[in-house]
Design goal:
Length: 507
């Protein structure tokens, strides 16, 4: 029997939500302060996924300006009904506005509408379209009864006006006594009953998936006596997969049930630089309750679906297209076009601007997710620096925790920013013309290198302990992104940096 490897979406792809339309599956994940936001992936076998677009890909749809690290877009839910795709989500810590919103599209690849604000407190909204033609929205909010205690509320949703109507019902507040962060709720109607799937325990080692059911959508809901239906918290730290939770259910055309969920792959203890990734687990039903076996495995038998891999994507981006590929992302909403693939064909040109990675801004940085514990990333940089200007490669966790390997006026520099303090780790003489820059990761260790001429790579400094790049140290909910960076460090500049290629390869 063929098997697949978890995670099915490696790298920072947390809070997965899935829906099926015919033989096609579509999935969305959280992106926090990153733009474009809320990537949509498409699959026909639940194992092989391809990116087909982003829900948020135009600045006018929703403002991410000034959103702090790990603020922004939390826990989207994707649903399809009567030919329309619906996306509900929460904008957290937005300086202009915060709260729930809904967006719609005829095609999941877009274009998506601008955001329409929804009533309701808290986070993690979800939509449910019932068989009787009515639709409902759930969400999570703190109660104040004790630290971390939350409740799930329910209101009717009007698809015509894209608004919540009618009275509110509080339907759940956790499966365990003293439960914290009952969140990420989804409603389903299965076999004539209503099922409420939620997470609880927080998104670290104590994360878990629980379920309850009712005869009416408004409740009362009874918890599964075998809750949690999936967790790894009893396994402790140091396991290959930890923090399993925040799940969504989907049924295949053949009647199989599967669960997508987030989990983490630590490189030691509970430390994880990859962030929360999307995993897949089988579900069966016994006595009217879903059964997962209680564990998510690294290797599992494939679903009973025709295998459908997508064409491979080249490991090296030659920047020979008119736009950046779907794997590239940037911080917050871009209000000006500071990157170009046409000014110098075959190169990505980044215009130097005063903003840097330490600023809560939209710096000249484009990155892609670190998706493997061991990887190598390389680029070719053509750049002449002046004053305090720099350009090169960056390993980005957030504004206070990152590593940069850059060319400056004085030469090459390897530096790290930890807890808001910048430290130079190693330097090398300037290299005229095009210089190769690279990072090679082995678990928690990142080795920088440079190439003064093709085929000759020299380590720069010692391997850097990247433990401080994990969310367990740096805080927040994201993983590391590796990418291309240019800044004039607070000064106006007319300069630019040209990147001839970028290659990312798992090791």
């Amino acid at each position: 029997m063929k098997r697949f490897r978890n995670p099915v979406l490696p790298g920072c792809h947390p809070d997965p939500s899935i829906c099926r339309v015919g033989d096609d599956f579509y999935l969305v994940t959280s992106t926090f302060e990153w733009f474009p936001g809320l990537p949509i992936h498409h699959s026909r076998d639940l194992v092989h996924w391809r990116p087909i677009g982003h829900v948020l890909d135009r600045p006018e749809q929703l403002p991410l300006d000034g959103v702090p690290a790990s603020g922004g877009l939390y826990a989207p839910t994707l649903r399809h009904h009567d030919g329309t795709f619906y996306l509900v989500c929460t904008l957290v810590d937005g300086p202009e506005w915060s709260g729930h919103f809904v967006m719609t599209a005829d095609d999941p690849s877009g274009p998506w509408s601008e955001a329409v604000r929804l009533d309701g407190d808290g986070i993690d909204p979800s939509l449910f379209f019932d068989d009787d033609g009515r639709a409902w929205c759930t969400g999570t909010r703190p109660t104040g009864r004790y630290d971390g205690h939350t409740e799930i509320w329910l209101r009717e949703f009007d698809p015509a006006s894209l608004s919540l109507v009618g009275e509110e019902h509080v339907i759940w507040d956790g499966a365990l006594k003293g439960a914290i962060w009952s969140e990420g709720s989804h409603l389903y109607r299965i076999g004539g009953r209503y099922y409420l799937l939620t997470a609880e325990g927080g998104t670290a080692l104590d994360h878990a998936v629980v379920i309850a059911r009712a005869d009416r959508v408004t409740g009362p809901y009874e918890g599964n006596p075998r809750n949690p239906v999936l967790t790894h918290r009893d396994l402790g730290s140091g396991r290959p997969i930890v923090g399993t939770g925040h799940a969504d259910l989907v049924e295949t055309p053949a009647g199989e049930w599967w669960m997508v969920l987030l989990a983490m792959r630590p490189h030691h203890g509970d430390r994880c630089a990859l962030g929360r990734e999307t995993f897949l687990a089988p579900v069966t039903w016994e006595d009217g309750w879903p059964v997962t076996g209680g564990r998510v495995e690294e290797s599992l038998p494939v679903p009973s679906l025709p295998e459908h891999p997508w064409p491979a994507v080249p490991a090296c981006d030659q920047f020979d297209g008119p736009e950046l590929g779907p794997s590239w992302t940037m911080l917050r909403t871009p209000r000006e076009r500071w990157w170009s693939l046409t000014d110098r064909p075959g190169h990505l040109r980044l215009r130097l601007r005063p903003d840097g990675l330490a600023d809560i801004a939209n710096p000249s940085f484009v990155g892609r997710r670190q998706q493997h514990p061991d990887f190598a990333a390389f680029t070719g940089l053509d750049f002449t620096a002046a004053d305090d200007e720099e350009a090169g490669l960056a390993l980005m966790q957030n504004n206070d925790f990152h590593i940069v390997l850059t060319a400056t006026e004085r030469g090459l520099r390897l530096a790290k920013r930890e807890q808001g303090v910048m430290t130079v780790l190693a330097e090398a003489p300037a290299v005229p013309g095009v210089v190769g820059l690279g990072f090679e990761a082995r678990g928690r260790w990142y080795q920088a290198s440079y190439s003064p001429r093709p085929g000759h790579w020299t380590p720069l400094g010692d391997p850097v302990d990247g433990d401080f790049l994990t969310s367990q140290v740096a805080g927040g909910f994201t993983g590391v992104l590796v990418g291309l960076y240019a800044t004039s460090n607070g000064r106006p500049s007319a300069n630019h940096a040209d990147f001839a290629w970028f290659e990312y390869t798992p090791l």
